[in-house]
Known about the structure:
mainly alpha; 17 helices
Amino acid sequence: MAFATAARFWIRLGFVSFGGPAGQIAILHREVVERRRWLDERQFAGALNFCMLLPGPEALQLAIYLGWKLHGVRGGLVAGLGFIVPAIVLLLGLSWVYARHGSVPAIAGILLGLQAAVVALVLQALVKIGRRALRTPALVVLAVVAFAALQFGGVPYPWVLVVSAAAGLAMAWRDAPRTSPPVAVTGTSWRRTLGVGLVLWIAPLLALAPTLGLDSLWGRLYFFFTQAALVTFGGAYAVLGYVTQHLVQDLGWLTAEQSVAGLALAETTPGPLVIVLQFMGFMAGWNQPAPLASEHAAVLAALLAAWATFLPSFVFIFLGAPYVERLTHDPRISGALAAITAAVVGIIATLALLLARVVLFPGGFAAGPRWSALVIASVAGVLLVRTRIALHWVLAAAAAAGVLACA
């Protein structure tokens, strides 16, 4: 199959990849395995298992890997960029509309409906991931401890993941004998990949240092979103709780309401849901623009957030792709991943609690619910669980209901 044919497919995919990671992975399987037969089931399953081991958006990483498998590095670049660039551009436009016109009644109504639907989506994800991940009593305990550590103990999100991974590694080491040799990383290709990745990561810093400074909002955002990208296990719902805690509660660069609005807008765009971090960067720049104009500060912050968020996915795939078979069959790695996934259940539970407070109980739990949002969230949840209606139609109906509620 010609590179040009594959490139056209990857670019078109970026405009139709709605439905979150599950929907996007299903699209990739249908198109790449079933319809076009570019790869077989075994190759696709191995690629998916590998991507599940990595921090970052698994559907994006799967697209990069499949592109690499077909046409090497250039194939991975085209597949990955085709997957995310449409979402980056669309969300920039939506972010500007929200920042400039979010208080207009019609826009506020649309956001109310979308935010209520997002509450249902997060609760659905919590149940689905919980059923899949919490297979043993030990994993249930890990999930509960992770929730308590974040919600009541103030433990930083990365430390929750590190401790969970260590616990999973210890349990796997005890229960499962080592069945595969260590992964040997030889040659110069990995050094070249790391070198190129490091240069691409440093480039924005070289532009910021003599102009705005590394201690500016933009430099601090870039470092923080790089850190977030390296611990983004469990997808956007998990990392959003961590980012919200830091940017909203610790730094005050944006509000919890703006964070929830970003997740709602990200759900309406194609591409990986973790694109919500770009919106959060945009709003941080919009809220703290000096010495730039609001629009310029926001766009710069958004692009830096997107660069820091997505660059590691390309580096991880190009580094690890030659070693997929050994990585995915190592029982110790599988044990660590299972423990991290269990912790992610607790992390998503903290996000669900935050969303319920902001969207459904804006006056606090004692003041009672916002009934319009509660009804929209309940109906959206029923539609998502009990019917096969596509997600974009559920979101559209929720947005229309929000406009009616605010009329």
